[in-house]
Protein: Oxidoreductase
Organism: Azospirillum griseum
Amino acid sequence: MRFALEWQDARLRAVRDVAADIRLFEIEPTTPAKPPAPGSHISVAVTIDGRADTRCYSLIGTAEDGAYRIAVKRLTESRGGSAYMWSLSPGARLRISDPQNLFELTLGRPDYLLIAGGIGITPIHGMALALASRGASLRMLYAARHRADLAFADDLAERLGDRLETYVDEEGQRMDLAAAIDALHPDGELYLCGPIGLMEAVRRQWRQSGRPPERLRFESFGNSGRFAPEAFTVRIPRLDTTITVPDNRSMLDALEAAGVELLSDCRRGECGLCAVDILGVEGEVDHRDVFFSDGQKAENHRMCACVSRVVGGSVTIDTARRD
């Protein structure tokens, strides 16, 4: 792992809804909250179907009043983390990690383009406010399915003015990604967080623009795909093992619970460390990662066990690389 997490006790101080299905949680740690850098997150210990697990949530705000704030979207197709968080009431005891940052904002660029989709607003929100407070040149595009889903939009509009552009799917509004990227300064950077479809579209347009790949920074939340999650079967002939992956657990979690050891790190489909070889598939692989390219996904030779799934059947894999 890239980080050795330091855990501490905390208390849920308050909750409030900031959108129809997004709730803001104010969490007061035992030791004074550390002001988080933009893009930071904390891990929260959760209980799902009686088993202990963890979930990562981006931090909102600067924690100046001693509380960390996270926004959690209630997902009908959740693996259980959001349902657990939404079951909590003020006063609940929690275990949380210190802030960590895998999505660092680089300061000093001549221009910034920020793109958020849905709950992907959580890390982008802090970046936008940090850049605005420094007088940086920026433009922010924020999309949601419904206008009521645009959490924090009023706050952002007050701080950013016409530098914020919102897009609502149900109203037929769509981002012009090509134009937005073309308008970015040649040495500018793009920061992105949102559902897999938006992320793939932005990454594709960025490649087509010929811009340096290191100037596109993104964070995924690894739970969106082209299909609704359903149970599927994983076969590993080398280990003479067959495992069923429930619809509310990841393939990686199910393999580990069955004693199949895999290397892993991000658990969000970004690092590729948990990728396994696909020997055969009955049905279709729903590639939910941002590690493999479109071409590699089309070849269907490998899949990221932490986020990708199968619909309509089963997959036969090998967990050991021999090349």
Notes: The longest helix spans residues 196-209. The domain at 112-219 is CATH 3.40.50.80 (Rossmann fold). The chain has seven helices and 16 strands. The longest strand covers residues 7-19.
